[in-house]
Amino acid sequence: MDTTLSPPDAAETLGGIPASDILRLLGDLVTVTAPAPDGDLGIRSVGVLDGSLDECPDLLLVIGAAPADWAGLITRSAEGGVRVVVLGPVSGDDRALIGAAGLQAGVCVLERRADVPWLTLSDLIRERIRVADTEQIRGSGVALEDLAGVAESLAEMLGGHVIIEDAKFRVLSYSSSTGQVDRGRDIAILGRRIPDDWLRHLESLGVIDTLLGTDEVVTVEDGPFEARRRLLCSIRAERFLLGVLWVAEGETPLPGDIRERMITAARTAAPFLLRHQEAGFQRRAAQNRQTRLLLDQGTIAQSTAEEYGLSPADRYTVFGLRASPDALLTNLDRNRTVESVALYCQSYRWRAATTTIGHTVYCVLAHDAETSAGRLSDLAAAVGEHVRRALLGRGVQVALSRTVRALQDIPTARGQVDEVLETCSPAKRLTVTSFDDALATIALSRVGQFMTANAIDHPKLERLRAEDQATGSEYTATLTAYLSAFGNVVAAARQLNVHVTTLRYRLKRIQAISGLDFDDPAERLLCELLLR
């Protein structure tokens, strides 16, 4: 089978669809305001104007900008590398101006039909790009299921030795090698995943965070096992990480334009990894069901626990994540968050099973008895920050359970996570709260629920509230401040912004009106609980 892809000098045009074909593919959903220039290159990426043109896609959907700004946006986007701009309906008076701006900038300008939703249009364009990539790969003679053939083809394109890994650094395919590269590559291939020494080396260089969060091509000049130079980059579909592409320098130096070739190679590999990932969706659905059953009932087959890496283990800890402040995630956000958490844990060698129930993402960690609470908290914070960035800066609330000894105790740990999330206020940033840190708040919440459910009240407090309502006094607020200050009249007066003498007078009136006995600790505690 011929597995040759397009030659390196055609790297820039590999994949995507020419801008001149956009109109034909979209039919009557759009009209042309400024045609595509001759010799236009392939359209691979679609983006939405978000107020910044720092990172420009090939095709830009201008949503929300005022028509008066369109001409300037066309010029600036062309300078950033945009090849096609899609606008909302253009009025007759503005069409000539917009068309001239597009021709001068060398950008194809399309006008969306008024009754066509932006989402429908963007989904259709992305689907056309995906189909074009797939057809081009099929035309090269490489089957979409043939990851081995892809690795061989990319090695030919890149001029080095290739390994393709999934997003959890597991080796999916690799190119054959007639010459020796280094022992690290051999260990990765034989073990079907990146060696621990290499993982620690990449961690020390900050490469893993770069691969997880960006499309940047990273160069590693040396490494464990007397390694030769390597280049790595992520393989993505839109913002979603699919895997990692490695190329190692052999006896022949890598080409001078290797970074540009790596970007093209990563785009070429994406459809193959998508197909591979789709095959794993069914397995993922089964794992979700098993993990939810473990969280709900503490039951899981021993063989399944071993398969998920949860057994054997000395201890287990559960942490949960919610987006804040509204704690609402779309299905897509939830699925990506689950994958992001699982990917992060696997990348840093934590054994974990992750799933989502409602709007909460749960992660069950299996670890040694010696694993400290501080290390668990650090992991939860790092995962929360990783998810926060993936959710475009939305706040993330992370709750951490106590450590339990057995899998059947997981529902107890899950309940602790839920209590933390329900009682602690979310924030517009990252918060990490353990069950023990939130225990006082949780205990008060439980007492409050009990008192409400049993209609517990105190007639003396009711008399005080009635006096406030009848005369406009502030005796209830005064009593609250006094009890919160542990009976310290100076601190309470400062909190109320009144003189100490005034506070003492109010306390005497409170006792006279209500009959409260401030010397009785039980009555003081009851009042404080009811006032809270």
Spatial separation of the terminal alpha carbons: 75 Å
Percent helix range: 40-55%
Strand content is 15-25%
Structural class assignment: alpha+beta
Number of structural domains: 4
Rg over alpha carbons: 31 Å
State the CATH class of the largest domain: Alpha Beta
Briefly characterize the structure.
With 532 residues, the chain is α+β, with helices and mostly antiparallel strands. Helix content is 48%, strand content 17%. The chain has four domains: 8-139, HprK N-terminal domain-like (Udp-n-acetylmuramoylalanyl-d-glutamate--2,6- Diaminopimelate Ligase, Chain: A, domain 1, 3-Layer(aba) Sandwich), CATH 3.40.1390; 147-277, 2-Layer Sandwich (Beta-Lactamase), CATH 3.30.450; 298-447, Reverse transcriptase/Diguanylate cyclase domain (Alpha-Beta Plaits, 2-Layer Sandwich), CATH 3.30.70; 457-531, PucR C-terminal helix-turn-helix domain (Arc Repressor Mutant, subunit A, Orthogonal Bundle).
Textual characterization of the structure:
- This protein is of the alpha+beta class and 532 residues long.
- The protein folds into four domains: 8-139, HprK N-terminal domain-like (Udp-n-acetylmuramoylalanyl-d-glutamate--2,6- Diaminopimelate Ligase, Chain: A, domain 1, 3-Layer(aba) Sandwich); 147-277, Beta-Lactamase, CATH 3.30.450; 298-447, 2-Layer Sandwich (Alpha-Beta Plaits), CATH 3.30.70; 457-531, Orthogonal Bundle (Arc Repressor Mutant, subunit A), CATH 1.10.10.
- It has 19 helices and 17 strands.
- It has helices at 22-26, 70-79, 92-105, 118-139, 147-158, 183-191, 196-205, 207-213, 258-297, 302-307, 331-347, 373-390, 410-423, 439-453, 459-471, 475-484, 489-496, 500-514, 521-531, and strands at residues 17-18, 30-34, 42-43, 46-48, 59-61, 84-87, 108-112, 161-166, 171-174, 218-220, 230-237, 240-248, 315-324, 351-357, 360-367, 395-400, 430-434.
- Helix 5 (147-158) packs antiparallel against helix 9, helix 9 packs across helix 13 and helix 11 crosses helix 12 (373-390).
- The radius of gyration is 31 Å and the shape is globular.
- Mean pLDDT is 82; it is low at 1-14 and 140-144.
